[in-house]
């Protein structure tokens, strides 16, 4: 329980007095002081008001030691980005298991794709999905296979199926690597990601097809992230006879350079 430490830390970071906070909560200063000092514990009504005032959800306000977070993470909280990007809170992942109680690899069929954003956490939705095993995958990790549409991510073509590894902590997203991102608005999206969590609480999503422009998705709009593992291609692609026409490697090189430039800029800013 870290409530007393957390409200004291947040108040000082906001440079607000106990009297000021107490006035906003509609309680006396002495009552608020007793909460910070641990002499008394607030009731649920006051806890809700504390959560609203500091813009931090109740679970994090009580259970997480905010002083152990990085400065960038605390800044995100103060900007209103109070979401579970680290996986420290329970993130429900509905899954199915085989007769040996080991996780299956569920396949999301094309017909079930549209319903995934509403059924991803519903066991009744997940249990009717086709399930299979891939013997070369780790039994200690969770995998799922998704249908991909469009031509934005060559060499993956329209109609391919991508298998991804469930990612609990979104800080582990590596710049320039492909991921499956599940969002409420966009649905199932397969893109190359650039991690901007510490800058503005977002990810930059890029395509390997240069005809498609990059776009940004805020972390609060994301439901799940799955790390790319492999894919099944339904079409036989003829080899590209002209290396000059293959812009994929060049695009990926540019993306990597952009990521490196961002890192250098960040390091310079940290030293200033």
Task: Please provide a brief summary of the model.
Helices cover 35% and strands 19% of the residues. The chain is of the alpha+beta class. It has 2 domains: 3-78, Orthogonal Bundle (434 Repressor (Amino-terminal Domain)); 105-237 and 245-271, Umud Fragment, subunit A, CATH 2.10.109.10.
Which shape, going by the Cα principal axes? Answer: globular
Assembly state here? single chain
Number of DSSP strand runs: 9
Low-confidence stretches: none
What proportion strand?
Answer: 15-25%
Could you name the CATH class of the largest domain?
Answer: Mainly Beta
Overall average pLDDT: 85
Radius of gyration from CA coordinates? 23 Å
Q: Mind summarizing the main beta sheet? A: 9 strands, mixed
Keywords summarizing the entry:
single chain, alpha+beta, 434 Repressor (Amino-terminal Domain), Umud Fragment, subunit A, 2 domains, 11 helices
């Amino acid at each position: 329980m870290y409530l007393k430490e957390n409200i004291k830390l947040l108040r000082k970071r906001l440079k607000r007095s106990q009297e000021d906070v107490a006035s906003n909560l509609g309680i006396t200063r002495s009552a608020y002081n007793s909460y910070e000092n641990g002499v008394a514990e607030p009731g649920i009504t006051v806890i809700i008001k504390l959560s609203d005032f500091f813009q931090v959800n109740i679970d994090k306000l009580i259970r997480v030691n905010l002083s152990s977070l990085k400065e960038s993470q605390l800044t995100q909280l103060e900007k209103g980005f109070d979401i579970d990007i680290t996986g420290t809170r329970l993130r429900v992942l509905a899954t199915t298991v085989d007769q040996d109680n080991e996780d299956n690899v569920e396949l999301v069929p094309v017909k079930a794709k549209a319903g995934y954003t509403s059924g991803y956490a519903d066991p009744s939705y997940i249990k009717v999905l086709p399930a299979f095993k891939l013997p070369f995958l780790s039994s200690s990790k969770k995998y799922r296979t998704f249908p991909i549409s469009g031509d934005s991510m060559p060499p993956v073509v329209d109609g391919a199926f991508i298998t991804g590894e469930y990612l609990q902590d979104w800080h582990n997203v590596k710049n320039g690597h492909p991921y499956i991102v599940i969002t409420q608005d966009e649905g199932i999206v397969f893109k190359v990601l650039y991690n901007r969590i510490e800058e503005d609480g977002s990810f930059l999503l890029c395509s390997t097809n240069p005809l498609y422009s990059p776009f940004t998705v805020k972390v609060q709009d994301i439901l799940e992230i799955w790390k790319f593992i492999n894919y099944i291609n339904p079409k036989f692609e003829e080899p590209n006879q002209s290396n000059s026409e293959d812009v994929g490697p060049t695009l990926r090189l540019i993306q990597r350079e952009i990521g490196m430039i961002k890192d250098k800029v960040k390091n310079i800013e940290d030293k200033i």
